[in-house]
Amino acid sequence: MSDAQRVAVHRDNPDGHVRILFAHGAGAGLQSDFMQYFALGLALHDIDVVRFNFPYWQKFMDTGVRRPPNPMAQLEHCMQTVAAQFDDSKPLFVMGKSMGARVAFRIADQVQAQAAIGLGYPFHPLGKPDKLRVDDLANQCTHNLILQGERDGFGKPAEVATYSLPKNVEVQWLAHGDHSFEPTKRSGLERREVWQTAIDRVCTFIEKVNAKTRA
């Protein structure tokens, strides 16, 4: 990698039989509470989870100066470069939080992923429901999954129901969750409960995809 593309990479459970390449969102890097909780939770299910920082976030970590996200082409190149570090035969799933989900869906074919998984997909910019990002979901994977909080301002159930999504994209809703799957106090749920539900659904999805691949 060039200096502009050299980024931190962290693996949880390298011996896992399935690999997830996990991309962070625009406002937090690989060490955020969300990224760590999901990575460690998935690692307990025999999954090799690979987290990394996009270049702009790595620059922030190195200098303390916040920068806007790199252009999409650079984000894609970064994620593809991390994927290329591994030359084994483990089944690969690409997953991302918010912006990272867009990148994951866009590179799924190039890295020969079994499927793409989005956690809080930004169907549109906040407050701009007419600027859809549905085209980013198109790939050749047989199955893809999006987990979305019912209160997510980047795409609520009533909005998403009107979209023409690719037939290979399944959207599952997390009750009481927002864009980061945080529940309301009124719901009586703890954050860890909703996050664990999301982890369980990701694991179930991976098991189903792998079973169909082996069939």
Architecture overview:
There is one protein chain. The protein is 32% helix and 18% strand. The protein is α/β, with parallel strands linked by helices and 215 residues long. It has a single domain, classed as Rossmann fold (3-Layer(aba) Sandwich), CATH 3.40.50.1820. The protein has a seven-stranded mixed beta sheet, with helices on both faces. α1 packs across α6 (191-214) and α3 crosses α4 (99-107). InterPro entries: AB_hydrolase_fold, KANL3/Tex30_Abhydrolase, NSL3/Tex30. It holds the Pfam family Abhydrolase_11.
Q: Give the number of helices.
A: 6
CATH homology-level superfamily: Alpha/Beta hydrolase fold, catalytic domain
Enumerate the strands of the largest sheet in spatial order, edge to edge or round the barrel. 1-3-2-4-5-6-7
Structural domain tally? 1
Given as residue ranges, the uncertain stretches (5+ residues, pLDDT < 50) are none
Order of helices and strands: EEHEHHEHEEHEH
CATH topology: Rossmann fold
Percent helix among the residues?
25-40%
Radius of gyration: 16 Å
Report, as a whole number of angstroms, the end-to-end distance.
38 Å
Protein name: Alpha/beta hydrolase
GO molecular function, one term: hydrolase activity
InterPro entries: AB_hydrolase_fold, KANL3/Tex30_Abhydrolase, NSL3/Tex30
Keywords: Hydrolase
